[in-house]
Design goal:
This protein is α/β, with parallel strands linked by helices. The protein has a domain of 76 residues: Alpha-Beta Plaits (2-Layer Sandwich). The protein has seven helices and 15 strands. A six-stranded mixed β-sheet has the order 4-3-5-8-14-15. Strand 14 and strand 15 form a beta hairpin. Helix 2 crosses helix 3. Bound molecules: ribulose-5-phosphate (5RP). This is ribose-5-phosphate isomerase.
Length: 270
Amino acid sequence: MAIPYPHFISSEKAAVEAGLLVPSSPSSSLSPPVILTQDDLKKIAAYKAVEYVESGMVLGLGTGSTAKHAVDRIGDLLRQGKLKNIVGIPTSKKTHEQAVSLGIPLSDLDSHPTLDLAIDGADEVDPFLNLVKGRGGSLLREKMVEGACKKFIVIVDESKLVNYLGGSGLAMPVEIIPFCWKFTAARLQNLFEESGCDARLRTFGGKDEPFVTDNGNYIVDLYFKKSIGDLKVASDAILQLAGVVEHGMFLDMATTVIIAGELGITIKNK
Ligand SMILES: O=C(CO)[C@H](O)[C@H](O)COP(=O)(O)O
C-alpha cells in the first residue's frame, strides 16, 4: 500500500529520524508529496515510541513487523551510545533472536518481574484502546510481559483502527493446548454462536500442518460476523474453557497508542 503523505508531516522528528522524510524547509511547499508505504508508517510509529525510552529502563520488546522497527531502533541507539543500560525482555523467540543479533542485553520476567515500558504492535485497536493481538502467534508471552509493565505503548498504522474488537473481520486468536483441539475449537465456536463465529485452526504456510506457538500450543482463530458484545464477559467465557491457554484480547492494558496515518502521527493516552 503506498500512501501520498501530506506535506506538513515532514516536520515530524520520528519520520525524519526514520530516514523517510527530510525536515521542513521554507521551500518545502514546492516539493512533491512524499509517498510512504504501510511499512513506512509502521516505522514512523515505532521511532516515535522509542522516543519514550530512557537509559536504564527494563523494556518489553514486542513481536511483529511494527515492533521489529522499534527493536532495530533501540539497537541503533545502544550502538550509538545514545541509550545505555537497557535490559530487554523479549515477547517471542523471534524477537529474542533479533535482540541478540543487535547486542541488546536480555533478561526474563523471573529476574525482572516489573518492567518500565513495553512497545509492541497490535492487530486491532478500538476507541477505548482495547486491542486484538496475536496474529503473529505470540499473544501469550506478549500478554505476560505487557501485563507486567508500568507503561505499554502500542504502535500501529491507521489500518489497525476498528470501531469494535473483531470488527476488522480478521482473526481473533486464541491459544489452546493441542490435546483434542477440535473439541476446544468447537466449544469456542459455540460460545459465540450468536455473533456468527467461525473457529479455524491456524495452519502453517497454507498447509494442513498446525501452526505451533513458542509455547508448544496451537492457535484457533475466531472470525465474527457480528459484535461479540461485552468484552469482559467474552474474555471470561473464553478463559473458563478448559483447554484454552490465553486469548488475544488485550483489555485495558495499553497506556498509550501511537498511530501513524495519512495525516501524521496521533497519540492517544489512557
Ligand atoms: O500481536 C502480535 C504478534 O503476536 C503483533 O504485534 C501483531 O500481530 C501486529 O503485527 P504487525 O506489526 O506485523 O502488523
